[in-house]
Task: inverse folding
């Protein structure tokens, strides 16, 4: 079966995902001419994510959404197992979502253009600057939420690495609650370093939000460790 899944990835999934990206990326870009908030663009991103999961045969079971207040903005902090994690989160979380991405992605045709125009936070990791906090505050003012992967890279074996503290400093300064998210099974869909995509079942667990109001900036490191332990408790 490995050869079958490789051929399926090359002959079916890659052309399909390319088509979804071009069509929905174009619609998203055109929408920014009348919707500068990027909210319609986010609908395009959710449709793009749903189509990718459906075409790939990825089924997602979500638990814990009842812990969240739909009227609030959050920073969703998730473990990172696969490049499929982004469509999984976008398709599964009923919030206006934005991501922090490296600035170089902004030049990628369609995907990068969407990130720039739809209000995502593109950061020069060598010099992130104080502007990130201001952009976070603007997201919250528009009722939008942020996704971060604090490990900084994808896990090969499912273990959850230590969380980097930068995104937690930003969350504390912006006063946004952090929601630990545990992803299980996505690493089997597309293993890091391999092209092959396999159908599979993924579990997404939403944990109780962690408030940052009143947390000192100096405690961000402790906060990162606490959230990491919560995420790791249900990730594999």
Result:
């Amino acid at each position: 079966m490995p050869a079958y899944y490789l051929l399926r990835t090359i002959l079916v999934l890659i052309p399909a995902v390319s088509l979804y990206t071009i069509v929905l990326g174009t619609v998203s870009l055109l929408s920014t001419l009348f919707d500068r908030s990027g909210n319609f663009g986010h609908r395009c991103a959710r449709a793009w994510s749903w189509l990718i999961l459906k075409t790939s045969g990825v089924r997602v079971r979500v638990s814990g959404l009842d812990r969240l207040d739909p009227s609030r903005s959050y920073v969703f902090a998730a473990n990172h197992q696969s490049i499929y994690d982004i469509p999984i989160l976008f398709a599964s979380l009923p919030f206006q979502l934005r991501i922090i991405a490296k600035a170089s992605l902004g030049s990628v045709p369609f995907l990068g253009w969407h990130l720039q125009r739809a209000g995502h936070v593109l950061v020069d990791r060598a010099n992130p600057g104080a502007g990130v906090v201001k952009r976070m505050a603007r997201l919250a003012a528009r009722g939008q939420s942020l996704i971060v992967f604090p490990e900084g890279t994808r896990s090969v074996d499912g273990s959850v690495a230590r969380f980097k503290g930068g995104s937690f400093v930003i969350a504390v300064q912006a006063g946004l609650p952090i929601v630990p998210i545990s992803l299980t099974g996505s690493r089997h869909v597309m293993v890091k370093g391999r092209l092959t995509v396999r159908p599979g079942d993924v579990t997404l667990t939403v944990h109780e939000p962690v408030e940052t109001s009143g947390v000192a900036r100096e405690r961000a490191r402790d906060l990162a460790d606490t959230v990491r332990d919560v995420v790791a408790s249900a990730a594999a």
User: Anything to note?
Assistant: The beta strands are 58-63, 75-78, 97-102, 121-123, 145-148, 178-184, 200-206.
